[in-house]
Amino acid sequence: MEFMQPATWSEALAMKAAHPEATPIAGGTDVMVGLNLDHGRPESIIDLTRIRELGEWGSDDGWLRIGAGVTYTKLIDELGDRLPGLAMASRTVGSPQIRNRGTVGGNLGTASPAGDAHPPLLAADAQVELASATGTRRVPVREFFTGPKQTTMRKDELIAAFLVEPAAGPQQFSKVGTRNAMVIAVCSFALALDPARRRVGTGIGSAGPTPLRATEAERFLEGVLDEQGSWDRRTRVSEAAVTRFGELVASAARPIDDVRGTAAYRRHALSVLARRCFTWAWAAA
Ligand SMILES: Cc1cc2nc3c(=O)[nH]c(=O)nc-3n(C[C@H](O)[C@H](O)[C@H](O)COP(=O)(O)OP(=O)(O)OC[C@H]3O[C@@H](n4cnc5c(N)ncnc54)[C@H](O)[C@@H]3O)c2cc1C
Question: Is the CB of 119 inside a 6 Å radius of any atom of ligand 1?
Fold first, then answer.
C-alpha cells in the first residue's frame, strides 16, 4: 500500500488528481476500522493530517467556514455557542477519544445514513466545499448525499470545508440508540428554527438510504407559526399541531428493518424525537 503524506493543500489536490482511487484519511476512525476488519485494502492512502488549514475555521461572508479536518472536540469547544445543534450531535459521537480524532469532514466522506453530523447540517442548510486541482465548488448538503455511503464528490475531489450560518434561533438534536454512548443511531433528528426568516429546518438520520429532510413537516410548522403570529409573540403551539409535526417527520422517513431496529419503531421514535425537539426549541425561543 502506498502511503502519501502531503504537507500542503495544493500538494494534496495534485496527489488526488494523480491517484483518483486513493483513499484520503483524516482522523481514521472510519478508515482504520475498515482496514482492521479487512473490508478492503486501498492501493494508496493520502494522509491529510499535516495540512494545517483543514483543521481551522473562520468567517466567510456571514457564514462559518469550517475546515474538513476540524475535530468534534474542537467544534464543541470553539463553536458550540454558534452551532448548538451540530455541537449537540457532536457530543453524542463515540467517546472522548473518537471525538478527539474524528472529524465532520470524515463523517461527510463516509456518508453513512447514520452519521450524526448530517441531520444538524441538513437542518441548518449547510454547504459542502469540494476542491480539486482544477477548482472549487460548493454543494448544498441536501444535494451532497446520493445513496448509502454515496455522494456527489468526484474521485479527483477532496472535501475542503463545510459552511454553515451561525444559529439564528434555537436548535436541537436528539438520537435514539441502544445505550447512551459509543452507539450508532437507531434514528436521530435535528431541528433548527430561524424566527427572523420564519424558517423551520429539519434533518433525519439513520432512517433512510441517505440523511433526509422532512420538507412537508417544515412547511406545516412554518404555516402554523405564521398563522398564529407565533414567530413574534412566541405563543403556545397547540398539542395537535405538535403531534401533526411529529407525524409528518415520521412519514418523511424511509426506514428499513435491520439489526438496530424495525422500520415501524424508527418511524414511531422519530415522531417522538420531533415533538420533543420542537417543544425544547420553542421553550428556548
Ligand atoms: C468506536 C467508534 C464510535 C463511533 N461513533 C460514532 C457515532 O456515534 N456517530 C457517528 O456519526 N460516527 C461514529 N463513528 C464513526 C466515525 O468516528 C465518524 O464517522 C467520524 O466523523 C469519521 O471522521 P474521521 O476524521 O475519523 O474520518 P476518516 O476515517 O479519516 O475518513 C472517513 C471517510 O471520509 C473520507 N475523508 C476523510 N477526510 C476527507 C476529505 N477531506 N475529503 C474527502 N474525503 C475524506 C475518507 O476517505 C473515508 O472515506 C464511530 C467510530 C468508532 C470507531
Answer: no
